[in-house]
What does this fold into?
Amino acid sequence: MVSVLPWQPKRLRAGARFLWRVMVYATVSLAPAQTAPTPSISVAATSMPVKLDGLLDDPAWATATSLVELTQQSPRPGTATPYRTTVRAIIQDNKLYFGFDCTDPDPRLIAVHTMRRDGSMDGDDTVSVALSTSGDKRSGYFFRVNAGGARADGLIAGREEAKLDWDGIWDARIARTATGWSAEIMIPASTLSFIKDSTTWGVNFERNVPRDHTVLRWASPVLDVFFYDLSRAGELLNVVELNQGHGLEVSPFVAGTSQTAYRDGASSLQGQPGADVTWRITPQLAAVFTVNTDFAEAEVDSLQLNVTRFPLFYPEKRPFFLEGANQFGFAFALEDDFIPFFSRTIGLFQGDPIPIDAGSKLIGRIGRWNIGMLDIQTRQAYSPSSSVAVPRTNLLASRISYDLTRRLRVGSIFTNGNPDGIHANSLLGFDGSWQTSELFGNKNFQAVGWTAFSRGDGPRGKRSGWGYIVDYPNDLFDCFHALNQFGEGLNPGLGFLPRAGIRKLDAACRVKPRPDRDGRLRWIRQAFLGHEYHHVTNARGQTESWNFLWSPVGMRLDSGDRFSLAFQPQFELLTAPFAIAPGVTLPAGAYRFNRFHGEFSTSDHRPWQLGSSTWFGAFYDGQLLQQSDYLNYTTRGGRWQTGVTLEQNFGNLREGSFVQRLFQVNVARAFQPNLILTSFFQYDTQAGSLGNNVRLRWTIRPGNDVFVVWNRNWQRLVLSPHDVSIVPDKNALTLKVRWTFRT
It folds into this structure.
């Protein structure tokens, strides 16, 4: 029997209007709660040179007028630790420097697992800086350095995370000392967008000690505050003598590629010059231009197994599109349910690269206005995957938002064009978000409302969507509720919408108690009891999907190891046959089944790391076992990294059986933090595709890079049931040199 949920549009629109009124009322009338005074650190300007070597023994550091000390944020806020950490700040030669001095009672136990740029540092001893330069206390920059000298950076657009795909031009060095380690972080003024006449920025500092999972922080060292929450950051005072000069940055490059297509018996040798040019019109607003854009240095996608009816999400990795990507964010917490503008649709068609002749971007702020505009001209090309010619086309995306108050932001988004170059498409959307970190005194809360409309060629039906999201992300209670509707004809030509023509209800709440550190359960760092409910109805009011995830057992131990168990009853209505695997097609109909889940992972701070996740139980009209396992090893100091991942699906349905496997092997050799050789090997049994990506990156100095990239692909030929022949498919070797000049 299929359950029915009436649409009740009038009632839901009334609810949306009520939510909007509550947001406006709260913005106007809610008085700030009494909180601790905002801490501050003064930055000293000096003419004495700084030798970037990780040691804080240069005379320039002695001119620092402020020395601040971090306090424990987790697991016991405010409690003393043996990890004394001090930070100071200076300005020299139009560069901002931060110096960290990190005491460690046993320096032999300092952990380093990577030297890769933006590598996973969860198990490493690290220091971090969150920097807010725009004055909005929402967006900013993130910089992290581990005890091996590896760097990670990103853009902050929300309080819970930073997007680490952005690569800014900055540098850092570390030094091991008799009492621990120290770090120097150098950020050129031309790397940042900032208010020219403002002498006060937002800043926060953090240190992670992974072996006992201790986190120290400067501002807001409490469990309910995320490090990326810039509204709770401290103040960096006396920011003077920083300027961006003429604000002009030119990054020319030259790339040469040798390609071979073995099936066609064709080979080619291509060379291509190009350039990216950035002009900072104001210290907060930048125009970026690109010619003959090349993405040879971008990392390859990690393949995924898919047993759903809907397309999977693959993140953007191309540098040009990542610069200023936080300015295009729409309706926080929609995540990949609906992305009105997704830059990955540009320059790719059915998985095939489409050359970009030229493009321009305008990103930054003007007063309370936040601006993100992108215009791209693609070249005529042929797509082998779809066997069609993609004509030359122009693609446009624009995102503008305005900060009505420090809590309330409203905005719009507009896109025009279709990546196939043939069909017309445009989209217009509006959103508003209200957020605070002072609910009930010091709790995080956010409410978001949105609506969007599309027009042009595409499926028939209602071409609009709307929704709201309420989020309460805190340490003890982490709760979330959302209701989003996507019309059958809503078509984001430059976006991502995996499932149109539905109304989706999401509700989740996790209770995360922390046992007494002196009690009998002190071996448990934090427990997790979670509930999630998802319900999807179609335009006719029929329930197409629902599932309820109940996780009664979930723990993170004091050692850092984790495990959890879960039970998930599920319902799926197939309105059309579903080909889940070659030769296995499920007929249309209603299916009700129960699934179970168990997983564990060892702590990231150990040299050996092991994890496993298993889903098992009924699946449609049969059984499905989904197994995912990984094993990683890192040598002391992070010079060598190796990792093996194996994902497997074993399906046994009435219509047939299938086995899907995905093998992935990662190897990285770090000669130093600026010279890294990586190899990524993956094999998908369903597609019969085997590929290897070898990438050498040599950063001569920040902004000046040499890349050598070798991509080799093989294809399995199934000429008989027992045939395992694998033949070469494609081969490409690319050399790219990029240089950066600033004035």
Summary: The CA atoms of residues 255 and 736 lie 4 Å apart. The first strand starts at residue 40 and ends at 42.
